[in-house]
Write a structure and sequence with these properties.
single chain; 8-stranded mixed β-sheet; 4 helices; Alpha/beta hydrolase
Length: 176
């Protein structure tokens, strides 16, 4: 693992810099950075990707981490994947919805541990319905803490024309 510093944003990078990039937004990075680092290292090793883990406090940090991950990637920046846990998972879904407005492209977004009572830390609002003009981004919703919400969310994204998948909790292994 090598530590790098985005301007004012602590970032840990795992994996070779020439590999495709996964941006990992995990709230436990603030309280158990070692466990999140171990998780990121396992993901990088097993998946053959570069994992960028920012230490984030709010939505501004999440957006700054997108800029950092895109700017430091060797591959085309619009091939970025984002995995978010909890409210950061809601932010990942929101990022997919607003990527055209933000002038970015995403390969895949994954929401883990999302729920109806969580708000997007970037906008401070609940997740909006997905737009019916989908981007070419795969969407995964992991049915973990709120399986009913996850199923309804994946179904809504599919109905809007997105390539969305409901992932069973026992098939998703990226846990602390």
């Amino acid at each position: 693992m090598q530590d790098q510093q985005a301007p004012g944003l602590p970032v840990a990078v795992h994996g070779h810099p020439n590999l495709d990039t996964l941006l990992l937004w995990h709230p436990a990075v603030r309280t158990d950075a070692d466990a999140v680092g171990a998780l990121a290292s396992r993901i990088a090793t097993r998946s053959g990707i570069r994992v960028v883990v920012p230490t984030w406090e709010d939505g501004r940090d999440l957006l700054r981490s997108v800029r950092y991950a895109r700017g430091s990637a060797v591959h085309p920046p619009d091939q970025l994947s984002v995995v978010g846990y909890g409210a950061a998972g809601i932010a990942a879904l929101s990022l997919a919805q607003h990527q055209r407005r933000l002038g970015i492209g995403l390969r895949r977004v994954t929401c883990v541990d999302g729920a109806a009572d969580l708000v997007d830390p970037i906008s401070g609002r609940p997740l909006a319905a997905p737009p019916s003009a989908p981007a070419d981004t795969a969407v995964d919703v992991v049915a973990s803490t709120a399986p009913g919400w996850a199923e309804a969310t994946a179904t809504a994204w599919q109905a809007a024309g997105w390539a969305a998948t409901l992932v069973a909790a026992d098939q998703f292994t990226w846990r602390l």
